[in-house]
Amino acid sequence: MIFGVLLYALARISTLFYIYVMRRFRQAKIVATLGPASHSLDSVRELFDSGTDVFRLNFSHGSHEDHAARVSWIRELEIETGRPVAILTDLQGPKVRVGKFLDGASELSVGDIVKLDLNKNLGDSSCIPLPHPEIFTILKVGTELLIDDGKLCLKIIKAESQIAEAEVVTGGSISDHKGVNIPNAVLPISPLGEKDRQDLNFALELGADLIGLSFVQRPDDVLEASELVGGRASILSKLEKPSAIDQLDQIIKVSDAIMIARGDLGVELPPEDLPSLQKQIIRKCRQQGKPVVVATQMLESMIEAPKPTRAEASDVATAIYDGADAVMLSAETAAGKYPLDAVKMMDSIIHRVERDPEFWYRTNSEHRDPEANAPDAITDAARQVAHTISAAAIITYTTSGSTTLRASRGRPDVPILCLTESLVTARKLALAWGVQCVMAPDVINFSNMVGRACQIAKEFEYALPEQSVVITAGVPFGTPGTTNILRIAKID
Which residues are the active-site residues? Predict the structure, then answer.
């Protein structure tokens, strides 16, 4: 609470200097991963100024000390700008890997028969160590194993409790600790291994806002993580396994946000299935009002080159046309040569799409009818009223964030200015489409609410004098889930 009040005061003081930062003139958000290429306060500041809305810490790489330093820089940036900034900590998740080989690698040829076992001896072209006893419980004749991101393929021809035989379908070089994917199988593995639990505790101690949960296969995986988190952060479920798609609606329901991790998901799915699946996931997330991030290889060539390929630019644009809340940069900003250019390019692509009438035609055609409750009715009415009177913005007062997420789900054609006294809420809403948050002490009465909303909208240049804004809130004030007021106000 104290930090939130401080942030509000700093936002007021620094309005004139940081107005270009406070106001994003686009609706979709950008997630940027921090790493060796962006490991300094100056780098974090420059990435933010270039358009980053959420910073991702990838716990598959780097030490706890590295991540702690990055968190301190992000929080310092937050104080400098007076703007809430979200931190996404991405857990590694369990990894199924082969063991070690003689000379570090072996060659497998099509048609070879190889043995898979739990033996810790070095492998060769006839025997592959697979030190995962739980995997042998689901192997059966006909099961395919994809190794090294699908570069090699084995088909099981004999399966027992601790040993199996497989035929090489796609050959090549196999080396130490390469990853193993098993399509069309629900693996009997928790998404939280020992490393993940340690990383989770550390992330919560650092004050992470979103926890990226890897290897989600079923709703129970999300519930397990939620119990450990205990409401201290939001759960962003990463869809990496095709088995998760079988229970997609339920997984979205128990998650706070979703990430379409196309790299891992694409290994186990035919490439031609991924584009339509991406659209399906985005549509379902929007229906449930849960933010969705499209990730992996979006501007991958910019790891080495100052410009993306035309196909990559089209890929980012497609995600925005599909209705994604956010798009993500991974190695481009963590380890690439042009991290700032990558963020600026993504920002430019989003701007260009959102100026296209076709984008708004698609967005409006996906609009769903409100549910039969007061908060949904008020929020949907605010969207329609804002469009009808050409309002400058929709302003939402919120405690839990549910009111603002409803407004975001409706995809209004004006910005959503969220006013909240909860810093936790403000940070998690950094991922939501169209939403910009300003810390504001809770209001005490209706007149105070309208006056403060208009004042802040004017200060942060969301509305000019004589323009109108649409305000939604709930009475009694400060009570979550009570959105029941809609007010049109004119800026003095």
Answer: 56, 97, 238, 296
